[in-house]
Specification:
The protein is of the alpha+beta class and 524 residues long. Helix content is 33%, strand content 31%. The strands form four sheets. The chain has an eleven-stranded antiparallel beta sheet with strand order 6-5-4-3-2-1-11-10-9-8-7. A five-stranded antiparallel beta sheet has the order 15-16-17-18-19. A four-stranded antiparallel beta sheet has the order 13-14-21-20. β7 and β8 form a beta hairpin. α7 runs antiparallel to α10 and α8 crosses α10.
Length: 524
C-alpha cells in the first residue's frame, strides 16, 4: 500500500474523529459528556440546515492526468445542500424538502420521504419519483445522515421492543466511550441569545477548535483514559453481555450471536474472559500508536492544515438546537505538485426545534409509474437522461455538463475478445461484445446465421448475416464494405461498418509492448 493511500485512510479517519472530539469534562458548569449523550434520547424533531462544500482543485495536475474530466470537475468546486424543512416522528418516518446546487448552476429541488417500508426520492427534472424498499436501502441511514442527533432514533422501527432495547444498549455503551473523551485545546462555554427557526432563544453556546496536530495528541490520550478505567470498561462489558443475554433466542440468532451466559456467576466469568482478551488489544493499540508517532507519516496525516471550528447551541435540557461548524482540510501534502486537491472546506449549519415534540409524518405515497430499483438497473444512462424534463437544471447538468449519456469503451488486440486487422490494416471487431458495451443485446438464429438487434440509443433495428455483406437498417437494405465472418465462436464485422451505422467513432492507439487499443466513443 502506497504512502498516498495511507494518507487517505488517515485523512478520513481524522475527519471522523474530529467530529466526535468535543470533550468530556464539565466546563463552566456544563456537563459536556451529558450533552453528547443527551442527543441519543432524541426521538422526533424538525430542522432546517445548509451544507456548503468548496474544493480548491489543482486544475493543472487534473488536466494533465485526466484531461477528459477536468472541465466537469469544475462543477463540483462549490456544492450547496439546503434543507428547507425536515421532520422525523420517531417511528422510522422522515420528510425532507430541500435542494442541491453545483457550481453556478441553478438549484435542483429534492424531496425525501421514508417510512417503515419505503423510501421515495423526488428530484426536480425527473418526471417520476424514485421509490425503493427499506429492505434494499436502509431508511435509517438516510435518517441519521439528514437529522443530527438522530442516527439511532428509529432503529428497528417496526419492532418497538427491539428499538427500545437498541436505544438502551447504545446509551449504556456510549456513556463509557464518551466519558473518556479529552477536551480539545480550545473550548469556550457561554450564554447566547440566538434565533432558532425564527424565534430567539436563550441557549448555552459551546465553541470548540481543534487542528489535526492536536487531534494526533488527543487520540493516544483518549486510549490512555480508557485503559486507566478498567472498572468502567468492565461495567460496560457487563452491560453489553446482559443486554444481549436478555434478548429472545430468535433475536440473538438473527444477529448471529451464540448462546450467552444467563446466571450472574457465568456472566461475571464471561466478562472477566473478555477483559483478559480486549484490554491487551487496547494496550497493544496504544503501543502501536506510540510507535507510529515517531514516524514522519504521523505528522503528514495529523497536520495543522486540518482544522475544525464548531459552535453548538443547547437548551437547558441539553438538547441541540443550533449548530454551526467549519472543517478545513488542507494538510501540507496537498501542496505536492501532482496532488489533485489543494483544500476542502465544509461548512454546515442547522436549526433544530420541536425536539421530542408532537411531530407527524405521513406514510410514503407511491404514485403509479414510480421508478423502482429494477427500473433503474435496466436503464442505460441515455434512457435516464431522455426521461428528464429537457428544460430542467438536472437535464442540463447530466446531458451537457457531465455528458453521462455518452458512451465509450475499449477493445484490445491482445486480451479479452480482441479486435483484429487484415493484411491491409482494416480493423474488424467482435459483434456481440461491441454491442453489449453499448447496452444492446443480439438475437442470433443459428440455422440462418442471422444477427438481429435493436440499438436503443439510435432507435434503429439492424440485421446482419454471417457470410454476407448485406445488412438491413430499419428494413432498408444496406451494403457493408466487407462480409460479416465467423472466427471460432465469434462473429466479426468491419469496424467502419458497425460504428458507421451506430454513429460512433473510433481510434486505434499503439502501445510500446506491441498491443493496440481501439477506443470507441459515441456522442449522444
Amino acid at each position: 500500500m502506497g504512502k498516498r493511500r495511507y494518507r487517505k485512510i488517515g485523512l478520513w479517519l481524522s475527519m471522523m474523529l474530529v467530529v466526535v472530539l468535543v470533550g468530556c469534562q464539565a466546563v463552566f458548569g456544563l456537563n459536556l459528556d451529558g450533552m453528547l449523550l443527551k442527543q441519543l434520547e432524541v426521538r422526533s424533531l424538525e430542522q432546517s440546515g445548509k451544507l456548503d462544500i468548496e474544493l480548491d482543485l489543482n486544475d493543472k495536475a487534473i488536466a494533465e492526468d485526466e484531461p477528459g474530466i477536468a472541465q466537469a470537475l469544475g462543477l463540483f468546486k462549490k456544492m450547496t445542500f439546503t434543507i428547507d424543512h425536515a421532520a422525523t416522528d420517531g417511528t422510522g418516518r422522515l420528510d425532507m424538502k430541500g435542494s442541491v446546487t453545483f457550481g453556478g448552476k441553478g438549484a435542483i429541488p429534492l424531496e425525501l420521504h421514508t417510512d417503515e417500508k419505503s423510501v421515495r426520492l423526488d428530484i426536480g427534472g425527473l418526471k417520476q419519483p424514485i421509490v425503493m424498499t427499506t429492505d434494499s436501502l436502509n431508511a435509517e441511514v438516510l435518517n441519521g445522515m439528514m437529522m443530527p442527533g438522530m442516527g439511532f432514533s428509529n432503529l428497528e422501527a417496526g419492532d418497538k421492543q427491539i428499538a427500545e432495547w437498541t436505544r438502551s444498549l447504545i446509551q449504556s455503551v456510549a456513556s463509557y466511550f464518551v466519558h473518556h473523551l479529552p477536551n480539545p485545546p480550545k473550548l469556550e462555554v457561554g450564554r447566547a441569545w440566538e434565533p432558532v427557526n425564527g424565534t430567539f432563544m436563550s441557549l448555552t453556546k459551546v465553541h470548540a477548535e481543534l487542528n489535526g496536530e492536536q487531534l494526533g495528541e488527543l487520540i493516544p490520550a483518549y486510549l490512555d483514559n480508557m485503559l486507566k478505567d478498567e472498572a468502567g470498561f468492565k461495567d460496560m462489558l457487563r452491560s453489553l453481555v446482559k443486554a444481549f443475554a436478555a434478548l429472545p433466542p430468535e433475536a440473538r440468532e438473527s444477529l448471529g450471536i451464540e448462546d450467552l451466559p444467563a446466571s450472574e456467576n457465568d456472566i461475571e466469568a464471561f466478562v472477566n474472559e473478555g477483559m483478559s482478551e480486549l484490554l491487551p488489544m487496547l494496550q497493544e493499540l496504544r503501543d502501536e500508536l506510540a510507535e507510529a508517532r515517531k514516524d514522519e507519516m504521523w505528522g503528514q496525516i495529523f497536520d495543522k492544515g486540518i482544522s475544525l471550528k464548531t459552535d453548538l447551541y443547547v437548551d437547558d435540557s441539553l438538547f441541540l438546537r443550533k449548530t454551526d461548524t467549519e472543517l478545513v482540510i488542507s494538510p501540507a501534502y496537498f501542496a505536492e505538485p501532482d496532488f489533485p486537491i489543494r483544500s476542502i472546506r465544509i461548512h454546515g449549519s442547522a436549526d433544530i426545534w420541536n425536539v421530542n415534540g408532537d411531530v407527524t409524518v405521513q406514510p410514503v405515497d407511491i404514485p403509479e409509474g414510480a421508478l423502482t430499483e429494477k427500473d433503474l438497473e435496466s436503464m442505460q444512462a441515455y434512457d435516464f437522461v431522455r426521461s428528464l424534463d429537457s428544460s430542467s437544471v438536472l437535464y442540463d447538468l447530466l446531458k451537457n455538463d457531465l455528458q453521462i449519456d455518452d458512451q465509450s469503451f475499449e477493445i484490445s488486440s491482445e486480451w479479452g475478445i480482441p479486435f483484429v486487422k487484415d493484411k491491409n490494416g482494416k480493423a474488424y471487431v467482435p459483434v456481440r461484445y461491441s454491442l453489449e458495451q453499448l447496452g444492446d443485446k443480439i438475437i442470433y438464429t443459428h440455422e440462418t446465421k442471422e444477427i438481429r438487434f435493436a440499438d436503443g440509443a439510435s432507435g434503429q433495428e439492424i440485421v446482419f448475416n454471417i457470410g454476407s455483406a448485406e445488412a438491413y437498417v430499419n428494413g432498408q437494405k444496406a451494403t457493408l464494405s466487407s462480409a460479416v465472418y465467423q472466427e471460432g465462436p465469434y462473429a466479426y464485422i468491419a469496424a467502419d461498418d458497425l460504428f458507421g451505422i451506430l454513429r460512433a467513432e473510433y481510434t486505434i492507439e499503439e502501445s510500446g509492448n506491441g498491443e493496440s487499443v481501439m477506443k470507441v466513443k459515441r456522442d449522444l
